[in-house]
Each structure stands twice: as structure tokens, then as C-alpha cells.
Design a protein that fits this description.
By secondary structure, this protein is an alpha/beta fold. The chain folds into three domains: about 5-50, Helicase, Ruva Protein, domain 3, CATH 1.10.8; about 50-85, no CATH class; about 90-205, Dna Topoisomerase Vi A Subunit, Chain: A, domain 2. Helices cover about 45% and strands about 15% of the residues. The chain is built from eight helices and six strands; from the N terminus they run αααββαβαβαβαβα. The strands form two sheets. Strands 4-3-5-6 form a four-stranded parallel β-sheet. β5 (about 150-155), α7 and β6 form a beta-alpha-beta unit. α1 (about 5-15) crosses α2 (about 20-30). The longest helix is centred in the first third of the chain and has 17 residues, at about 35-50. The termini are far apart. The structure holds zinc ion (ZN).
Length: about 210
């Protein structure tokens, strides 16, 4: 790894959202100034992350394994929403881009169904294997269980959001679920993550 050491490390950091080459360099310099203990703690914490935080086998939502096991009397594969005995509305699936969107929608109290986390958007110029895999999972999910699913596309009204919504609509077409989209209460370009409660409630109530 020696000659490629910096290259590898930088490329890993650049996988983080919003991090380009310049920010990756800043991270490297900052971590260089960590104490030796802090450097070891960081390395250990990253290595142990999968023990604590996991992605749901059904909806790909990240959940804290221990907190959830106690709170929901759940297993270690499913998030508290997808867990068999959860009281969520099981015929509604809201497709969202990232985990933070769920926090915001849950805070609004306007939705009681299930989710599907894409982990990104479909970008025609940039092949994202994770997103494509998750869309495949969505297809299987809708195809397998309820014939009368409503799939709510709640992606940000940006160019890539629109592109991704259209793509998913096309993929799901043969299964003929009811597909709705959030109303344009969200002004163009505003991300769901930053929308306030009233806006979310309005966008949900007026979905079509
Ligand atoms: Zn789940």
C-alpha cells in the first residue's frame, strides 16, 4: 500500500458525501494532528461500526442494533419499522434518498408507512451500484408481498431527483403498484432533509 497510501486514503475519504479532493486533504491533515489515542480510537470505531449500526435487510434503513433490540423487542436484521410485529402501515412504501430524510418525515408525524432508502440518486453520468441494487430490491419487495402497494416517491425536486423518480416509475411499471409523488410544496431544489414540518405534511397530503 506504501506508494498508493495517500491515494487510497484520499479515495476512501472522497466516498463521503460532499467530500472532494481538497476536503479529503484537509481531513488527512486534521487527522495527522490528532493525538495518537484519538487516531487509534477513530480506526477502532470505524472497524467496529457494523457491530453497532446496521442496514435493514428490507428497507436499507440504518439502525442502532442495541437500542432497537431493547426498544422494539426486534431481531438484528430488520429495522423497527420492517419488523414483523411493528404497527406501521405495511402497504405504503416511501422511497427516500437518505436516512436523514426519515428523521424529518417522522418528526412531522404525517406518515405511518414503511420506507425504502436509496442511498443516493441515479445519475446518468455516474454509475452508482448501491442505488441500482436498492432499486432492484424495491422491485422485488413490491413484487413479492402486497399487490396493492402504494409507492410514494419522495425524492428531492432536483434534476437527479426527477430523473431517479422517472427511472423507478419505469422499473416498477410491470408490477403496476399505485405510484404517487410528493406535491410540489417543496420549492425546486429544496432537499427533503431541510424541509419543515408544515411543508412535509402539505407535500404528503397533496401527493398524486
Ligand atoms: Zn426496515
Amino acid at each position: 500500500m506504501d506508494s498508493n497510501f495517500f491515494h487510497t486514503l484520499r479515495k476512501l475519504l472522497e466516498k463521503l458525501p460532499g467530500i472532494g479532493p481538497r476536503q479529503a486533504n484537509r481531513f488527512l491533515w486534521a487527522m495527522l494532528d490528532f493525538s495518537e489515542d484519538e487516531q487509534k480510537d477513530l480506526a477502532r470505531a470505524i472497524a467496529e461500526l457494523p457491530k453497532h449500526l446496521r442496514r435493514c435487510a428490507v428497507c436499507s434503513r440504518a439502525f442502532n442494533v442495541r437500542v432497537q433490540a431493547v426498544a422494539a423487542n426486534s431481531d438484528e436484521k430488520h429495522c423497527s419499522f420492517c419488523f414483523e410485529y411493528s404497527k406501521r402501515e405495511k402497504n405504503k412504501i416511501m422511497v427516500i434518498e437518505k436516512d436523514n430524510d426519515i428523521l424529518n418525515i417522522e418528526r412531522s408525524g404525517a406518515y405511518g408507512g414503511l420506507y425504502h432508502v436509496l442511498g443516493g440518486m441515479i445519475d446518468p453520468l455516474d454509475e452508482n451500484p448501491i442505488v441500482r441494487e436498492r432499486i432492484k430490491k424495491l422491485y422485488e419487495r413490491v413484487g413479492k408481498n402486497h399487490p396493492n402497494y402504494e409507492v410514494i416517491l419522495a425524492l428531492s425536486p432536483t434534476k437527479t431527483g426527477e430523473f431517479t423518480s422517472n427511472y423507478i416509475t419505469k422499473v416498477l411499471e410491470p408490477l403496476a403498484p399505485k405510484i404517487t409523488r410528493l406535491a410540489r410544496g417543496l420549492s425546486t431544489g429544496v432537499e427533503l432533509e431541510y424541509a419543515d414540518e408544515m411543508t412535509i405534511r402539505h407535500a404528503l397530503d397533496n401527493r398524486r
